[in-house]
Amino acid sequence: MLFGTFTAFFMPDTVEKSRGGGVIAHYREYLPVTDATPIVSLGEGATPLVEAPRLSNRVGCRVLLKCEGLNPTGSFKDRGMAVAVSRAIENGATALICASTGNTSASAAAYAARAGIRSAVVLPAGKIASGKLIQAIAHGAHIVAIDGNFDEALGVVRELGREGEFTIVNSINPDRIAGQKTAAFEIVDELGDAPDVQILPLGNAGNLTAYWAGYREYEKIGKSHRSPRMIGIQAAGAAPIFFQRVIKTPETVASAIRIGNPASWEFAQRAIDESRGAVQIASDEEILAAQRWLARNEGIFVEPASAAPIAGLIKLAAEGADELFSENSVIVCTVTGHGLKDPEIVARDFQRSAPVSADAKAVRAAIMN
Question: Which one of 50, 264, 321, 357 is least enclosed by Cβ atoms within 10 Å?
C-alpha cells in the first residue's frame, strides 16, 4: 500500500527523516512537532524578501515584498499545510478535507498526494480561479462544488470534520497557523529585526493571526526588539472586519479574500488592536490597478488578493497616514499568491492583434503603433 510505504519512508531512523525539509527543518523548535512526527514537505518556505524601489519611492518609505507565490504550489498556504499534514499523518489521518476559495485546495491536494492519502475540497460553485482549481484536480482531490459561498462551504467542512472521517486543514486547524508563522520568522531573520509595519491581505484572517504570533514569539525570546504594526487590507465588497459586520454575500475580483465571516476574525482583531494597527479597504479597481502597476514597475506578478496590500499601502500613503508609518519606516507587504493562480482577469484585458507580415518593417510598425 502507498500509505504503508509512506509511513516507513518517513520513520525517524531514515536518512530522509534526519535531513527533514522545508519550514519544519528550519524552525522545528518553534513548531508543534516531535522526533516522532513524520515530515511531509515539498520544500516550502525560504521565499524571497524583495526590495521594491519604485514602490518605496511612490509611498515615501522603504518597502519590501515577501513573495509567497514562490512556495511549491504558488501560495503561502504551503507553510501551514506542511505542518498540518505532518501532524495529521502522525495522528493517523487517512483523508484531508478543506473549504476553499482556491489556494487552500491546491495546497491541501498537493500535500495529501505527497503523503499518499485522500483529499476532498468543498468550494463555492463558479467562484474559484481556474489556476487554483486545475491544481487541485491535477493532484487528485475529490472536488465538490456547492450552491453557496465560502462561509457555507466551511460550515459543511466543520460538520464533516466532527464526524471523524476527515482531518480539516483549513486555518481553523492550529497546526496551519503554526506553520504560517514561519514567514514572520524569515522576515526577522533576514532584516535582523521586525519591520515597523506588516501589511497583508485579509480574508479568512488566519495569515494575519499567524504573522502576529510569529513576530510576538520572536520578540519574547529576544530574536527581535519589537513587533510591527499589523495592517490588514480587505476588498471593499468583502470587508467584514473593516465594517465590523458579517457580509452575507461578499463580492470581489480578489477571490482569495472573498470571505464574509472570517474564521479567525477574533484573533486577527486582537492582533490589530495589540499592535496598534489598522484595517483598510481597497476597491476592485484599486486592487487591479495595483496588480498592473506592481507587475509593470517591480516585475512581480501577483494574484488580485495579493495586490490588495499594495493597493492599501498606496491608499494609506496618499491619505497621509502618519499615525501608522513615516518616511523612516520599514514596511513589509506580503504578496501571498502568484499571478498565474488567477490569469483570467489579466487575459481579458489583452487585445490579441491580427498577425502581421514576417518582416522587420511590419513588426516594427506593429510595435510602434
Answer: 357
